[in-house]
Amino acid sequence: MKYVSEFRDPVLARNLARQIAAEADPARQYAFMEFCGGHTHAIFRYGVHDLMPKNLRFVHGPGCPVCVLPVRRLDDAIEVAEKHGAILCAYGDMMRVPGTGRRSLLSARAAGADIRMVYSPLDALALARENPQAQVVFLGIGFETTAPATAMAILQAQAEGLANFSVLCNHVLTPPAIRHVLEAPGIDPEQAVRLDGFLGPSHVSTVIGAHAYAPLVARYGKPVVIAGFEPLDVMQAVLMLIRQVNDGRAQVENQYTRVVTDTGNQKAQGVMAQVFTLRPAFEWRGLGSVPDSAFAIAPEYAAFDAEQRFPISDKASRETKSCECPAILRGVKEPKDCKLFGRACTPETPMGACMVSSEGACAAWYTYRRAEAMGTPAPALEPAQ
Amino acid sequence: MCLAIPARITALHDGAMATVNAGGVTRDVSVALLEAVAVGDYVLLHVGYALHLISEEEARETLRMMAQTGLLQDELAEMAGTSGGQGA
């Protein structure tokens, strides 16, 4: 229990660990997917996996927005800046992600493209106001946490008549990705990852609300427990999942009631519904083509759609060779199964997106469990009390 | 970028904008996606937009946990290090 002393309430942590051990049925194997990369990080940082019984494992999910963006869309963004001379605005997490031929936004900028790191689409709007002669393109990525901000920026641009602003829209949705992980289309059932339930994301759920998972749970019979970010939240949510599995129940439960409501932020849902339309399918790194899983800009706002504004060419985009990001994002492989991990691929020289983003599974393994992942024994843990 | 940062509203402005303080970083953000906010309220901030009101205790605990995991430093660096027109 090497990190328990850093928990907000170490006594509660030990009690929860004991409770989990007592209630986990030794005759079962429990596999729970934490969808969100923030949860992956918390689990590793606090050693939550070390507090779990041997027959319980966490499977890392695809909830890292930078990681799931396919190389092709990144190549498109670089093309918009390089070939069409636009000022391309991107979140900091995107800057070092390698595209085809290991070209990144950062290397394109070094080669002369005008690429700016922004914290918010508000920054991109400000750039559009200050540079009326230039085309300013915002690279919109992320789940339901960032999509409302992109939608608001488009509405603001329309209200101000900012004709030089547009968005390259790559926003993706959480429930369709969970559905896809469960259906595992085209994957041999022997190879598919077996899951008993999901830790639902904290911040995505503040936007979409707990009810958003109800159709999934009803259809696939796997429990979802929305969990806060604290390690104690994660442990509490794990206990709730174990109880559902043991009872043969499958329900949406909300451990994070401090923040998440059943209905979410309806204003944010409203602007997303107004500005976006569902793409029939969208390519995700790792998951492949996922139906109804991403937003495009609705026809009424086509004037702000970079895909309409710029002639983006067809290109043969390629993942970095040997990079196991795709299988890791499906939960089928772990970073330690990748031969690049920790050798050719490190946070300083990332070969794949999962090593770039702090929410990526490879970055989390590299930071906290590198020795174990690379085959050297992990340092001894404090004896459990 | 995907994770929200807890922040305290220190001033309200026209156009549903507000100044917030998040872990010592000050920045103007939009509060257009909240029903009603007041100076002193704590919010969850997503890429420049406040999306949820939270309690002071929740804000403090989340900031503490994000700081311990190193996630806070990344988010705050982005928030502080970029502003419209200056790039990175």
From TrEMBL, chain A:
<dbReference type="InterPro" id="IPR042243">
    <property type="entry name" value="HypD_1"/>
</dbReference>
<dbReference type="InterPro" id="IPR042244">
    <property type="entry name" value="HypD_2_sf"/>
</dbReference>
<protein>
    <recommendedName>
        <fullName>Hydrogenase maturation factor</fullName>
    </recommendedName>
</protein>
<keyword id="KW-0408">Iron</keyword>
<dbReference type="Pfam" id="PF01924">
    <property type="entry name" value="HypD"/>
</dbReference>
<comment type="similarity">
    <text>Belongs to the HypD family.</text>
</comment>
<dbReference type="InterPro" id="IPR002780">
    <property type="entry name" value="Hyd_form_HypD"/>
</dbReference>
<keyword id="KW-0479">Metal-binding</keyword>
From TrEMBL, chain B:
<protein>
    <submittedName>
        <fullName>HypC/HybG/HupF family hydrogenase formation chaperone</fullName>
    </submittedName>
</protein>
<comment type="similarity">
    <text>Belongs to the HupF/HypC family.</text>
</comment>
<dbReference type="InterPro" id="IPR001109">
    <property type="entry name" value="Hydrogenase_HupF/HypC"/>
</dbReference>
<dbReference type="InterPro" id="IPR019812">
    <property type="entry name" value="Hydgase_assmbl_chp_CS"/>
</dbReference>
<dbReference type="Pfam" id="PF01455">
    <property type="entry name" value="HupF_HypC"/>
</dbReference>
